[in-house]
Structures are given as structure tokens and as C-alpha cells.
Amino acid sequence: MNPAPEPASRRTPLHRTVAADLRTAITAGEYGSGARLPAEDELARRYGVSRGTVRQALAALRSDGLITSRRGTRRVVLAGPGGGSGTTELRSFTRWARSLGEQPGGRTDSVVRGRADAEEAEQLRIEPGATVHHVLRLRTLSGTPVMVERTTYPGAVGELVAAMPADTVSYSEQLALHGVLFTDAHHTIDLVPADADDARLLGCRAGESLLRERRRSTDPAGVPVEWSQDRYLPGTVAFTAHSTAAGALGRRLRP
Questions:
Q1: Which of 32, 54, 82, 95 is least surrounded by CB atoms within 10 angstroms?
Q2: Count of H-run helices and E-run strands, the chain
Q3: Which residues contact 148 (CB under 8 A, 6 or more apart)?
């Protein structure tokens, strides 16, 4: 049975979706301090919205102090949160890879509709046995296997993911177009032995230690939208943590 459509009153306004995506891009360093954002008409085409919606989104960014407010010119980025483009926020894998000049890749291995177990129900704040989608996906950097994603999505979000092509590079970018935003996340880093799927997708040995990042992401209202376990090949990335008010966590390539 398909999930009932979300009431219009609960949908995220389009301008907030656009503003959130641009804010994430600025935070991720895609537009450094002093860089110009794309023109209004280009942004309207990119997001499939009207120029009025774009102007509302840009007004929100202006109120946050992220961009200039000069009319008749392309908006200029003043600084990302924290004072510049050198943020250490754990941005999406796709945006992080692009910021390094790497070509991000993704290949969905399987999407299985199932029922939430006790851990998934707790992390996603849903009832045990509620409908979820389990996604197994390989992530690559410039064609080289780096990480395996195991993500559980709640019902309505999972339906959107299940309909995406297997070679979709960024789920978060596509979900943002549907009003599903990833704004906050809680991370846990540890080690875990590679299982048969890890070995098959990453080309490592079963039992080999992998760096695991467990992550629960929430939308602007604090509602969980994914529970994920990402497993990285050893020697490919390292994570850094900074003791700041924002509690920033970043990832970096390892030589």
C-alpha cells in the first residue's frame, strides 16, 4: 500500500528547500567567501521553481548574513557559518568529494522494503515493525571503491529513494527536490569487521577491520530521515573532531 500523501500544511515550502540546499553548499565550501552565487534564472532552472521562490530563498540567506543584499547583481557569499569556507562540518559524501576535486560515484546494490527492528525503530523514532527501506550502496571516489553505505529510511522517504536510478550519485540532493532536508546529524565512529557484502563490494577480505560511521540525520523539525552505517576501507579517510560550540566533525582523505 502506498503511503498517504503528506498534508499540504506539513510540506516544506519550496523557498526553504532551496535556501537549505544553498546554505549547505556554502557551508561545504562550494562557494567560498567572495564567490558569486549563480544568477536567479539559473537557480530557478536548477531547482525547477519560479524566480520569486528563488528570491525568497536568497532573502533567507541574506537574513542569515551569508550573502550580500545588493539588488541587480549576482549575490556574493560573505562567509560560511564559522567565519569562512574552511568549515570542518561533516558534509555529505558527494559534496565533500567534489570539494577535493574528486569525482563522487554511487551504485545501489539493493533496496529492500522491510520492517523496522528495535534499533531502527529507536533511531528513526517509529514503531517497531513499521515499514522501512534498507539500502545497500557502494560509494566511489574517481572510480575507486571507498565506502559501503547501509541506510535505513522511514516509509515515505524510502519510497522516494526506491524510485531513484541505481547510479544516483547523491540521494540527499535528489531528496531535497522533494522537500526532504538533511540538516543535523549525530555521529558515532568505531571499527567493525567486514562482512561478505563489504568484501564483495570493496574488494577487501571478510573479517578485515573497516572504519564505521553510524549516523542519524534529522530534518529542520528534528524528525529522523535516515539511520545509516557507512563502512570505509582502511587507509582511505580519517575523521577529525573539533571542540567548538558547533561540535564540528570532519572527514579527510588519507594518503
A1: 32
A2: 8, 8
A3: 136, 137, 138, 139, 197, 198, 201, 202, 230, 231
Nearest to 14 by CA among 140, 180, 238, 231: 180
* 143 close to 120: Cβ distance less than 8 angstroms: no
Instruction: Report the alpha-carbon distance of residue 179 to residue 95 in Å, rounded.
Output: 19
Residues 165-192: what's their mean pLDDT? 88
CA–CA distances in Å: residue 110 to residues 70, 135, 240: 48, 6, 31
CA angle in degrees (0–180, nearest 5) for 172-174-176: 70
Kindly tell me the sign of the dihedral angle through the C-alpha atoms of 124, 125, 127, 131: negative
Which backbone phi and psi does 227 adopt, to 5 degrees? -130, 115
Distances (CA, A) of 83 to 28, 32, 86, 212, 228: 12, 11, 8, 30, 30
With a CB cutoff of 8 Å and minimum separation 6, the contacts of 188 are: 213, 214, 215
Locate 117 and state its grid cell.
Answer: 527492528
Cell of 49: 521553481
At residue 87, the pLDDT reads 37
Q: What is the pTM of this model?
A: 0.65
The torsion angles phi and psi of 21, rounded to 5 degrees, stand at: -70, -45
Whole-number Å distance between alpha carbons of 186 and 86: 21
Q: What is the mean pLDDT of residues 66-75?
A: 65
